[in-house]
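Journal club prep, shared notes

We agreed each person brings one worked example of a sequence with its structure written out as tokens. Mine is Tol-Pal system protein TolR. I'm keeping it raw so we can talk through how to read the token line rather than staring at a rendered picture. Sequence first:
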Amino acid sequence: MSGTVIRRKRRKLKSEINVVPYIDVMLVLLIIFMVTAPLLTLSVDVKLPSSTALATADSSEPYVVVAYPDGRYGLSLPGASQPEILADDALMQRLAAMRNQQGSELRIMVAADGAAPYQRVIDAMGVLRNAGISNVTLISDAGGNAR
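Then the structure, token by token:
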């Protein structure tokens, strides 16, 4: 009896990679991206002008609507030294008449004093929208950091 030899089978090593955990991670990432992708596409369409030329001074002076901190509006016409002070309704009627006279090519710039709350600028743009003017530009001061 002592002559019996017990032989163990040697297990063969597997040289395969278990990919099941990787598939689980990829499926979770796929679900996350599918959920977040529609949220990332919310945007506002902005119509930007295109040009190959450098910025130069325009030959015609623009019309400028000035929003003052105390709630008044000013309309600066080309060639005028001081803006004309107008109320909301008077400004809207004047701008609507100018739009009817010049058509859709009428450019209006909105300026405001640095001490004016931004709500005044938004209100000025609302008056312009109510007057039917769509070509509006904001004027800003370059400040000390501009090159």
